[in-house]
């Protein structure tokens, strides 16, 4: 049987002796109006949490020790957390695999800045650090996922690393080193051979000699 309780003014349910006792509601409950929960901690022990709002607002007070950093934490151990936070001092989103309940300890790695931009060129343009804290892109550097084709319309620079390239099965590695008899300083290594690419001038000299 449906029962209604109509009152004028506020309605309080309060435990008095002792005041630490709790009020339990052991049934499905529907709140048609706004629900305000006040206290230091709110526990939600459910198997599934369904939120209609597309955005979840945290750090709404934006004061105190949490004013500069706020985000989400998840338990890794009883006292260790992984987290995602926004660092208001650097305007960056950051990730960590180890922090405490405050989200202020541990090593945090930036993942983006607050002023990122869309790279130029087609949708195959390769994104890179633009040098000013933003993402960049150029139509001259693209990668086609469908064909695994990397295209560079510009200059390719091979820096000297002082190490012999490691052979990779069914592939050829290319690196730079001190120029040898081939005159180029560009070396390759594949399953069968390891050698220096020869320049045109050196090839002419060798053809005359041999």
Keywords:
single chain; 210 residues; mainly beta; four-stranded antiparallel β-sheet; three-stranded antiparallel β-sheet; 1 helix; 5% helix
Quick structural overview:
By secondary structure, the chain is mainly beta. It is 5% helix and 26% strand.
Characterization of this structure:
The chain is mostly beta strands and 210 residues long. The protein has one helix spanning 200-209; strands at residues 69-75, 81-87, 92-99, 109-113, 128-129, 135-136, 141-144, 149-152, 173-176, 183-189, 194-198. Among the domains are: 67-113, no CATH class; 128-209, no CATH class. The model has no long low-confidence stretch (mean pLDDT 84).
Walk me through the topology.
Layout: E1 69-75, E2 81-87, E3 92-99, E4 109-113, E5 128-129, E6 135-136, E7 141-144, E8 149-152, E9 173-176, E10 183-189, E11 194-198, H1 200-209
Antiparallel strand pairs: 1-2, 2-3, 3-4, 5-6, 7-8, 9-10, 10-11
Spans of at least 5 consecutive residues whose pLDDT stays below 50 are: none
Oligomer: single chain
Strand content: 25-35%
Helix content: under 10%
Gyration radius, in Å:
32 Å
Shape: rod-shaped
Q: How many distinct beta strands?
A: 11
Structural class, please?
mainly beta
For the terminal residues, how far apart are their CA atoms? 109 Å
Give the biggest beta sheet: 4 strands, antiparallel
Mean pLDDT: 84
Kindly report the spatial arrangement of strands forming the biggest sheet: 1-2-3-4
């Amino acid at each position: 049987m449906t029962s209604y309780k109509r009152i004028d003014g506020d309605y309080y349910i309060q435990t008095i002796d002792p005041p630490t006792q709790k009020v339990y509601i052991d049934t499905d409950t529907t709140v048609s109006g706004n629900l305000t929960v006040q206290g230091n901690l709110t526990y939600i022990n459910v198997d599934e949490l369904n939120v209609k709002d597309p955005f979840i607002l945290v750090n709404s007070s934006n004061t105190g020790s949490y004013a500069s950093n706020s985000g989400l934490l998840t338990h890794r151990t009883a006292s260790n957390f992984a987290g995602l936070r926004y660092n208001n001092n650097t305007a960056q989103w950051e990730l960590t695999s180890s922090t405490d309940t405050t989200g202020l300890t541990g090593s945090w790695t930036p993942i983006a800045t607050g002023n990122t931009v869309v790279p130029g060129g087609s949708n195959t343009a390769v994104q890179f650090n633009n040098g000013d804290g933003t993402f960049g892109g150029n139509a001259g550097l693209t990668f086609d996922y469908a064909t695994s084709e990397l295209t560079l319309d510009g200059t390719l620079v091979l820096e000297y690393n002082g190490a012999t390239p490691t052979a990779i099965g069914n592939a050829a590695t290319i690196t730079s080193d001190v120029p040898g008899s081939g005159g180029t300083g560009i070396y390759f290594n594949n399953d069968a051979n390891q050698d220096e690419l020869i320049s045109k001038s050196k090839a002419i000299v060798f053809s005359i000699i041999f």
